[in-house]
Amino acid sequence: MSLGISAVENKTKLKLRWKDKRTVEDYMKIVTKNINIQNEIFTLTNQRALFWKKEKALIFSDLHIGKTAHFRKNGIALANHIMKNDLERLSILIEYFQPEKFIIVGDLLHAGDNVDVDEFCIWKNQYSDIKFCLVEGNHDRISKTLEKKLCLDSRSDSLEIDDISFVHDFDKTNSKFQITGHIHPGFMINSPVKRIKLPCFVVTENQLLLPAFSEFTGLDTKNLPKKGRFYVFTDAEIYEI
Q: What is the pTM of this model?
């Protein structure tokens, strides 16, 4: 396990925008690490997203908008700040990378249309200049009415750019290198004091598996590629394992 890799660390004061138009000021450390895939440079972040500079694309999966509202509807009390925190983190990444498009690799939504989706649409309207490309996941049950409400620029089962295929779950029949989501990968760190489970990116010879963007998801440490490089991250660092 290598814990001494170099990372580009940036701590930037960023202004966030939210639905009530108030300015929220916050600090968030963004740690980045560049990796080469298919002769392309991609930037891993410790904020659960990937940036592709050539395409000016911010790439992430498994935002699961509507999950907290779905739980509340079914009698499980959850604070509404969970989704708000995810979107504020996304706003910080927008300010930092200045992307021209999002590639959302599945599970943008969790359970169809609900009040959380309304708030997401209000948040999204701030970024009308950013192209939203959705690769549908198993939770993205989107009617024509909901598709219009979300104002998606594209919606498909898969997306291909150059020699890279974006698909929610890994497709063994696809010979191209795939960037995927779905699994919510995690890595177990064994310390003398306790075991710690952390989110991670996983890179194999034919796949880059993204962490779930939402922090309101579990971490799967079992259903992962058998061979690969694990990029485990904390609030402060990215470690290659």
A: 0.84
